[in-house]
Design goal:
The protein has 500 residues and is an alpha/beta fold. The protein is built from 12 helices and 19 strands. The strands form 5 sheets. The chain has a 5-stranded antiparallel β-sheet with strand order 2-1-19-18-17, sandwiched between helices. Strands 15-7-5-3-16 form a 5-stranded mixed β-sheet, covered by helices on one side. Strands 10, 11, 12 and 13 form a 4-stranded mixed β-sheet that branches. The protein is globular, with a radius of gyration of 24 Å. The two termini are 30 Å apart.
Length: 500
């Protein structure tokens, strides 16, 4: 992703209506010639054949978010579609009676500590967290004499993947996949411009426990781009300094900001403090444990939605936090150890090999989301995973969870597939990083057969004016013309060789 997406990504809802209006203009014609200098990898199999057609299908390339296909498939195979991620509220075992009530004195004091066991539930919100801690209030607790422990032992190691771009870290799509996740580990704010050349004010959501200050300058929309973009520096203690330029919208409407937290542990502490204060429950301090505390028994819990719904959201929205939370929970269950990015990658490879006979060979995985440019895989290897999913779709219902061209998710307005005959016939996962644009899934051909395919376009470099226009969504990437051409050949059922 690009640093300018600090506002483009957070303004997604605002842009959706404009995209709907301009979709015809954004659609691209098929082009049999790829953009000069790009690296293209294509792989597909026609029904009834084991032959792989395409080009460069054994060359290692960056999968970007098509990596989420591997994350989703391995999680479904090992955890099952109904698996749920649990966040538990635990109390010292001796303080829970056989009837399930808490032992309190006449002033509502719980003479011992509590523990909140976080498990990386990407759907946990501050509202849900309050609902969980409110079970103490409902039980009559007014004061906790011992510590409030945040048990973060489910995940270990780094909360961001190896190789993630440093300048993307303040943005919500790189939120840390830590054991504690509240409100997607993002803080929401706005920038309020006061005219061209004047400093815009940062307006923070009243309940977010972060600090934001602004030195961003208001500019005309036509001047945005190049060396005048919106940027943010992210500091410890979850503090943000916003600089650069902010375009002044019609009616001087504020720009929304979506900011990733730096310190997930502190985020958990701050939300716990705020929530207990709101519930009127005093306590003896909040502590973070990275190994499970002993002597506690579950008193209450909240479960996430079933895994299949988490995967659907991950694939539709290409949500990175969901992807890495799912990958880490898969690893935690598979190894019965604290989940790290390394264990997540190893669990993915092992599960796909053992349960689907998909050999990822010398490919390289460092996260479940595909955010890292360190990830490498060949088109053929990803095709093998899709081929397995298609052959077992009556059991897995895998492709029901993926977006459809012209209908849903990131495929709703994709310029290469938004028009007939590809509209409604391509079910796929997009994959976008800086200089990378990929697509992988299945295509229903003219004859009604389903064909798995992978199209990788890496190392895209466009002329500066064209690059700025693509980044600002004023035009579709010209690389999508060749993508459309390939898909149309597959739609017609053509068996193509290594050189198109």
């Amino acid at each position: 992703m690009l640093p300018h997406d600090l506002f483009h990504k957070t303004a997604y809802a605002l842009c959706a209506a404009m995209l709907a209006v301009s979709v015809r203009a954004m659609a691209v014609p098929a082009s049999p010639v790829p953009v000069a200098g790009t690296d293209i990898g294509v792989a597909y199999r026609l029904p009834g054949s084991d032959t792989v057609y395409g080009q460069n299908f054994d060359v290692y390339m960056h999968p970007a978010s098509t990596q989420k296909i591997l994350t989703a498939l391995s999680a479904l195979l090992y955890l099952g579609p109904d698996y749920k991620i649990r966040t538990a509220l635990a109390v010292k075992r001796e303080l829970i009676s056989s009837s399930g009530t808490l032992a309190l004195d006449d002033k509502g004091t719980l003479k011992g500590g509590i523990s909140v066991r976080f498990s990386g539930d990407p759907t946990m919100t501050s509202g849900k967290y309050k609902q969980l801690l409110a079970m103490l209030q409902k039980a009559g607790v007014k004061r906790i004499e011992g510590p409030v422990i945040l048990d973060l032992s489910r995940f270990g190691g780094r909360s961001r993947g190896q190789g993630w771009s440093w300048d993307d870290l303040p943005v919500c799509f790189t939120a840390p996949a830590a054991a504690v996740i509240i409100n997607r580990n993002c803080a929401f704010a706005q920038l309020q411009p006061h005219g061209v050349g004047k400093k815009a004010d940062a307006v923070l959501s009243s309940d977010s426990p972060v600090r934001v200050w602004s030195d961003a300058i208001g500019i005309a929309p036509s001047d945005y781009g190049g060396d005048c973009e919106l940027e943010a520096d992210l500091y410890r203690e979850n503090a943000y300094h916003v600089t650069g330029c902010v375009p002044i919208q019609k009616n001087n409407a504020p720009w929304p900001l979506s900011l990733s937290v730096a310190d997930a542990d502190k985020w958990g502490i701050d939300w716990t403090e705020k929530t207990l204060n709101a519930l009127g429950i005093a306590h003896g301090g909040i502590e973070v444990y990275h190994s499970a505390p002993s002597g506690y028994a579950d008193f209450s819990y909240l479960d996430s939605a079933p895994l299949k719904e988490l995967i659907r959201y991950m694939l539709y929205r290409s949500n990175n936090l969901y992807a890495d939370a799912i990958a880490k929970n898969t690893a935690a269950e598979y190894y019965h150890q604290s989940a790290t990015y390394w264990r997540s990658a190893q669990a993915m490879r092992s599960i796909l090999s053992k349960y689907a006979h998909v050999n990822l060979g010398d490919s390289y995985q460092v996260d479940g989301s595909g955010l890292s440019p360190h990830n490498l895989i060949t088109p053929r290897q990803l095709l093998d995973a899709l081929d397995y999913a298609l052959k077992h779709d009556s059991e897995l219902h895998f492709f029901e969870l993926m977006p459809v061209a012209g209908q849903s998710g990131t495929m709703h307005w994709r310029p290469s597939t938004v028009n007939s005959p590809l509209k409604d016939n391509v079910t796929a996962k997009t994959g976008t990083l800086t200089n990378t644009s990929n697509l992988a899934g299945i295509l229903t051909t003219r004859s009604g057969q389903k064909v798995p395919f992978v199209i990788f376009t890496n190392n895209i470099s466009l002329p500066p004016r064209q690059r700025d226009a693509v980044r600002s969504h004023r035009m579709a990437s010209p690389t999508l013309g060749y993508e459309r051409y390939i898909l149309e050949q597959i739609y017609e059922g053509r068996a193509m060789g290594r050189d198109f």
